[in-house]
Amino acid sequence: MERPAHTDSDLLAALRAGDEAAFARLVDDLSPGLARMARLYVSTEAAADEVVQETWLGVVRGLDGFEGRSSLKTWIFRILINIARTRGVRDGRSLPFSSAFDAADGHEDDALAPDRFLAADHDRYPRHWAIGPTPWPDQALETAETIGVIRGAVKGLPGSQREVIALRDMVGCSAAETCTALGLSEANQRVLLHRARTRVRAAIEETLGTMEPTL
């Protein structure tokens, strides 16, 4: 849940004043999401925990210099992403961000058949679903096998797609927070998220097939 601006300001003031309880609440609120994000860059849970710990150290060191141009949550995730990228490249886990697929290069995503989407020049719904996805039973999506497929698909995405879908769908950041954290335009963020979700869905379909919903 996004914090109102005044709450964010009050929290920042409390943190700068050395309020340990406020800091503990912030750690409890954000650490699970930070760990999920870090896990995309490093090969073990222990390494992800180390990245999260480094992030909180960076937060403590940088509080006085935080200018409030973004939300506190977004700023903290930017610290995490920078640390995780560096750690991931060092460990040989991930590609540099510069190698990511460029959302503005004009290529269509080929994870699903093109006829499942409307044309880019459609007058009302460009690139929206033409043949919509069939919902799967909830229990099918909650199995360990499917969860593993989803995680593997996300980890296998090009860098920018992976980061966008992780922030939006795994961490719960808003579109605006994601754009700020990753330095993306709103249009690029939208295209990257669509492509990432399409590829993840294709991976699930390979496992579950186009199952009919249960009654």
What does this molecule look like?
It is a single chain. By secondary structure, the protein is mainly alpha-helical. It folds into 2 domains: 86 residues, Orthogonal Bundle (Rna Polymerase Sigma Factor, Chain: A), CATH 1.10.1740.10; 112 residues, Orthogonal Bundle (Arc Repressor Mutant, subunit A), CATH 1.10.10.10. The protein has 9 helices and no strands. α2 packs across α7 and α7 packs across α9.
Specify the overall morphology: globular
Q: Report Rg.
A: 19 Å
State the name of the first-level CATH class of the largest domain.
Answer: Mainly Alpha
The protein's oligomeric status is single chain
Classify the fold: give the CATH topology of the largest domain.
Arc Repressor Mutant, subunit A
- When the domains are counted, the total is 2
Portion of residues within helices:
55-70%
Low-confidence parts: 1-6, 94-109, 210-215
Largest sheet features: none
Q: Which structural class should the secondary elements be placed in?
A: mainly alpha
Q: State mean pLDDT (0 to 100 scale).
A: 78
State the fourth-level CATH superfamily of the largest domain. Winged helix-like DNA-binding domain superfamily/Winged helix DNA-binding domain
Number of strands: 0
Q: How much strand?
A: under 5%
Total number of helical segments?
A: 9
Which H/E pattern describes the elements?
HHHHHHHHH
